[in-house]
Amino acid sequence: MKRLYLIGGPMGVGKTTVCRELQKRLDRSVFLDGDWCWDAHPFQVTEETKTMVLENICFLLNNFLRCPAYDYVIFCWVLHQQAILDDLRSRLNTRDCQVRAVSLVTSPEVLTARLEADIRAGRRDRDALARSLPYLPLYDGLCTEKLDSSRLSPAEAAACLLP
After folding, report:
1. How many CA atoms lie within 13 A of 140 on its CB side?
2. Rg of the Cα trace of the chain?
3. What is the pLDDT of residues 114-132, one digit of tens each?
């Protein structure tokens, strides 16, 4: 049986890094970061672009789920609202698939430190902290498994997600 990982969390929590680690540990796996489906300049959030990105994500995920070369499909994106998760799941063919929805969370202090380090290193814009921190409490209300990565390395967090 295939396994689909839906990994959400605020910007800077470590989703991509943890998913890359998980991919290394799972043979016959494929990884999609939702941000890759919406990498535009200038970045625009409109009804049209929101519809497009969800269609892009679902198209790719359904193709991965349908492909016999993969046993594990790993997807990450912010996924901060239950409606987004529900809409995504309703569009995916997961009939013969085990789905694991996980929210990566951390303390506000750790998230701040991670984002500030990224800003100093030039990996994120200066406004990343102001955009990310307000999302953190939203994950408490989601129907997902919560994984607090505050004291975990990416490899340790990935190990927690292994089947």
Report:
1. 6
2. 15
3. 999 999 999 999 899 999 9
Hey, what are 108's tokens? 């506000």
- DSSP structure class, residue 30: E
* Max Cα-Cα span within the chain: 45
Indicate the SS3 state at residue 5: strand
Over residues 38-64, the pLDDT tens digits come to: 888 888 989 999 999 999 999 999 999
The residues pairing with 8 across neighbouring beta strands, listed in sequence order, are 103
Nearest-10 crossing angle of helices 47-66, 82-91: 50
| 3-class SS of residue 125 | coil
Contact 153, 117 (CB under 8 A): no
